[in-house]
Amino acid sequence: MLNKLTFFKALQRDSWVKPFLRHYKKTLWLAIFLGILTFICASGLMFISGYLITKSATPPENILLVYVPIVLTRAFGIFRPLLHYLERLTSHNWVFKMTSEFRKKMYDSLEQDAVFFNNKYRLGDILGLLSEDVAHIQNLYLRTLFPFFTVCGLYVFISLGLGIISPLFALWMLVLYGLLVVALPLWSVLVNGARQEYEKKVKNSLYLDLTDNVLGVADWIFSERTGDYIKRHEENEAKLLDAQAKMRKFERKRDLVGQLIFLAIILSVLVWATNRFGGSQSEASNWIAAFVLCVFPMADAFMPLSNAAQETNVYLDSIERLNKLPQPKESQKISQVITEPLTLKISGVTFAYSDGHRDILQGINLTLTPKEKLAILGRSGSGKSTLASLIRGDLVPTKGQITLNGIDVTEFGDEIAKYIGVIHQTPYLFNTTIVNNVRLGNEAASDQEVWDVLKRVGLEKLIKKLPQGLETMVDEAGLRFSGGERHRLALARILLKDAPIIILDEPTVGLDPITERALVKTFMEVLQDKTLIWITHHLQGVDQMDKIIFIEDGEIVLQGSPAKLSQNKRYQKLKQIDEGY
Amino acid sequence: MVDKLLFKLAGIKQIMVKLAGLTFLQALLIIGQALFLSATLTNLWLGKSLSSQVVNIVGFSLCFLFRQGIDLLNSKILDDYARKSAKDMRKKLLEKLFVLGPEVVQQQGTGNLVTLTLDGIFQVENYIKLLLSKMIGMLLIPVLILIVAFWMDLTSGIIMLLVYPLIVLFMIILGFAAKAKADQQFTTFQRLSNHFIDSLRGIDTLKYFGLSRRYSRSVYRSSENFRKSTMQTLRVAMLSTFALDFFTTLSIAVLAVFLGLRLIDQEMALFYALSILILAPEYFLPIRNFANDYHATLNGKNSFHAIAELIHSPAPKKEEVELTLWQNKDQFQLNDVSFAYDEQNKLAPLSFAASGYQKVGIIGMSGSGKTTLINLISGFFTPNSGTFKVQGHELADLNAAAWRKQVLYIPQTPYVFSDTLRNNIAFYTPDVSDEKIWQAIKVVGLEKLVAELPDGLETQIGSGKRALSGGQAQRIALARAFLDQKRKIMIFDEPTAHLDIETELELKEKMMPLMENKLVFFATHRLHWMHQMDHILVMDEGRLVEQGTYAELLAKNGYFCKLLKEMRGTKDAE
């Protein structure tokens, strides 16, 4: 039967939820202990109040005889809210602490594949999912695991406490409370689990479908088919609502059953207490009201368990998704050191993705001497960008080798950043100050050095005009860097890094021709002393390069100096079009 | 606290009356349950046997059961009602969204709208449920219990009455304090929580700089800072729950002690004292329930208001006009049309005329106003001033069904639905034959793609499935255009801006024949297209600076020639 509980199955091979329970053990135990105490105080308040009132009704000759119950009543009354408050703070603090470690682990896991992060995952999706996963795991701890541990503790406490007074009755209570702690939550998960699974699926597809069609709203409107879509949406929605209605119906029934069990507990205690303490008005009979009344606050602890257990299904996806992320590896520290000038040699490189059918690149041979300028042209999907990843060592060739001064590029690890810099299509600017963004290139750079590179890329004037200058946040309202300016900032960063080889990966896509021209001019000027590999889809500016290659279907189909290529018909035609003739 | 908008929901009054009736009954059962239990306990305390108490015990059990039964009924009624209201609301919202179109999507963001439509309405559903049940419970149950308490013992009644406003007062005060504290920290808050997302977004850049591994520590550090500031806020925020807890439990304790003392003085009977003690937690239960769910309802309330605002936002007035199928003799005019929305979307008054199957090129650099003009022509924007004249009809905007019916709109990245290739191609013409579709595929050059797809025409494409390249998406848009021959007006917005030059060339060859016998508006910053245009509008910084044929513009030697020169980096024009 437990096999049906996918949640437990997921937990078995989990490495994202369980390990964190071992962290900060003291705080964890404290939170659970405080939780148990809170309920004991709530129950204790009713217990001692019941005792106090019946005892007072005797009536005692002297108020001092009820002095202890009076003090206890007040104590429980004050401690319950206080403990509850502390418990909540402790458990939240624990969860947030865990979250910090959790985020770090998540980052480390994604860092391994950093270069392909944007391609591999659809960025919006994965970011949304990851932050949702963090929230889900937090809720799993706060709303399911903690209450469950607390109630288990309470359950043990009740059983032991009653066991001392009356073992047989304790056994009976063990059974009844057991129904609330184990049977009802289990029933819930089993029955509603499948429904929840289905609900999640329908909801998900509703989500995707709606997103898809909101994005395509213009086409729906122009085609005058909006009615079709709304009808389709309603049909899908009906499935969801139906599933939800069934779930709610079950929950209502289940809660009623829970209350019935609770009534049985109350009546059992009533019968037991009367048999044990009743029979005549005496000191003993004061305990009857105490024992009966203290049962009531227990409902607050035990009743929410079923829903909490059922919620685990919601978190299941998050757990599974997280467990699919690669485990962070320890870094291997073997890095080679080489000195300039650098010669890049690509010999017989063929590449195919392990799951791909065809080769992305086939037998590429190239040598780049220091300060040589190479342009790579080709359609999207021709393998240009793959070549860039291979050169940086982020991908490993299936055949052939790429070397820097004779050393395989994959041997440099993260140190490759010292030798090869990259500016890609959409350079990312971090949500921090301009100066912090530029200093990514070299954290030790002085303000003067930062200004120097900004001047070289033509941003000095623009930034000097800003009231906060270098300390301006890059995305602050009112200041949005345009496409061209973003690339200039990325260029400044690269200049500060001062790597001898620079790869420009289609940095001008989507820019208008004049912005493109100006940007290309700046690139050429400031990167004069570097070895340059420029991947481009336009011919704008390529005649300033030493060598141009055309890649088609993974092979070099055309290469030579601009002067040589200008004799070529195809090259001439493309160049003309690009210039607007 | 009480939301006026809620009372505008259809059928809410009947539901509230029903709920109030049931809740009233429930309050009576709560009181009955307490009295029966109190009687049982009093008699048992006196030493009477269990068997003598069967009636009281059965009475207690029945009250208990019926109370839970009413709970069930209450929540069933509410569930059904809330679900139905949510469904209506979702339908209204969707209908509105598809009327308002891309403009509202752009303003509010796709993600935001989708979340609002699905999650937002689920929250509203929850909000309706919680607010109705908790509010009615809070209004009725304490009052009835209080009446019983007063009847049993005046002083206890007074204590209970006095504590209630105290609780509410403290909750409000502490709630405000927490809010102030939270507001104060909000900015740091946001910056810190964005840090994680920010570092993931830029993770490839970090890797390129060889910094990504070291950055891990920064992720941890900022998360820890986040924890510390969150905890500071929580300490205050949780105080309001603490205050509620504190006053309720303490007042039960005070009542117990107080009742004890009165019993010692023999001023009241045990039965009454026990009844009041049992009723006291029930007295506070509704307000505690309300407070517990208060935060959950806040989100619901916000969504509710956001949704209502969208649903009730004025739909653009649709121009009612009869247009005939566009023919070669038809006239199209813009007279002093201007537009101003923000810095990016701004147009100075401009006029031009086009007729028949002319091809109108719109050229300019980024930010010159091309897209704004296209949005006006496609009817998404309503001009601030000026008029359109179509086939002799004067129109304030082009948001008219008769106009749209004839328009084919092809943006920079045509949207590919997550559906089969066939359905994507036949989106505008769902009933078209396979033969026609194959013809369209040939015309736009999609044969290679179809050959690569495992299930041919029936292959699922689009986001999350098989992604298409920009060129392939353009071809699908062209195929749609080819199939829908009733649409004689084509509007292009930068269709090739992000494509590589060879793909652009191939597409141009496929596109030009499709533009025959159509009125075409073609916005681009790629100059070579202008050779094929009959009339060219040259835009700069939101103004129409020049217009005419290619030859006329060259002769003028104005801004258009300047553009040509700047692009080629030469001083000599053609």
Automatic annotation (TrEMBL), chain B:
InterPro entries on file: AAA+_ATPase (IPR003593), ABC1_TM_dom (IPR011527), ABC1_TM_sf (IPR036640), ABC_transporter-like_ATP-bd (IPR003439), ABC_transporter-like_CS (IPR017871), ABC_transptr_CydD (IPR014216), P-loop_NTPase (IPR027417), Type_1_exporter (IPR039421)
Cited SUPFAM superfamilies: ABC transporter transmembrane region (SSF90123), P-loop containing nucleoside triphosphate hydrolases (SSF52540)
Compartment list: Cell membrane
GO biological process per UniProt: cysteine transport; proteolysis
GO molecular function, one term: cysteine-type peptidase activity
CDD domains to which the protein is assigned, alphabetical: ABC_6TM_AarD_CydD (cd18584)
Domain ABC transporter span(s) in chain numbering: 332-566
Residues passing through the membrane, by range: 131-152, 158-178, 236-263, 269-285
Membrane topology: Multi-pass membrane protein
Main location: membrane
Keywords: ATP-binding, Cell membrane, Hydrolase, Membrane, Nucleotide-binding, Protease, Thiol protease, Transmembrane, Transmembrane helix, Transport
Domain ABC transmembrane type-1 positions: 22-299
Keyword Ribosomal protein appears in the UniProt entry: no
Cellular component, GO annotation: plasma membrane
Record NCBIfam families: CydD
Protein name as catalogued: ABC transporter
